[in-house]
Amino acid sequence: MADVQRRPGRQLPPQGRGPPPPPAARPAAPRLEPVDREKTCPLLLRVFTKVGGHHTDDDFAVRGKEPKDEVQIYTWMDATLRELTDLVFVFQVKEVAPEARRRDAILSFAFVYPDKRGRFVVREVGRTFSYPNGRRPDSGSKALGDLSFQIGDYLDVAILTQ
User: Fold this and answer.
1) Which family is it part of (predicted)?
2) Do residues 126 and 111 touch, judged by C-beta distance below 8 A?
């Protein structure tokens, strides 16, 4: 075997460094354990809906003066966005927002929570179609717990039509 001669110049990167592994090789995030809904007390989820887009951070700035279009749902941390879509659709949308009944309607979900300074932040976490379709994948299979929902956060649902 021939000896390799090192020339002065650019340093080689240390061993063990380099680009991150491809996405398939990364370990998947731990999936939330299913909740025994017969034995576990549900949490109260305050859901705010709005047609056309999400509420703004300022809409939640004053405690007690949140937007009026609220629905309260008792659910669990393993509830999926699809399950919440169906609940919101049944409780709120049929009477208040007929736009959501359209086949092309999209429900955009956002968590509303206080940041480190105490100001409320609206952060989109997923989208579902009002009518599920295998040819149009959405975020319906993601659970609240998988999306880092914290008890006490609000859920803001924007009803979007194309």
Assistant:
1) Belongs to the SAP18 family.
2) no
Tell me the CB-side half-sphere exposure of residue 111, using CA atoms within 13 A.
Answer: 17
Contacts of 65 (CB under 8 A, 6+ apart): none
Is 120 within 8 Å of 68 (Cβ atoms)? no
Burial of 128 (0-12, 13-18, 19+ CB in 10 A): buried
- Dist CA 11 CA 29 (whole Å): 36
Q: Is 146 left (phi over 0), alpha (psi -120 to 50) or beta?
A: alpha
39: CB partners within 8 A, 6+ apart: none
Beta strands, E only, the chain:
43-51, 70-75, 106-114, 120-129, 154-160
The CA–CA distances, whole Å, from 93 to 32, 70, 100, 105, 107 equal 29, 11, 6, 11, 11
pTM of the model: 0.74
pLDDT digits (tens, 9 = 90+) for 60-108: 998 889 999 888 999 999 999 999 988 876 665 556 566 666 777 889 9
Mean pLDDT of the chain: 81
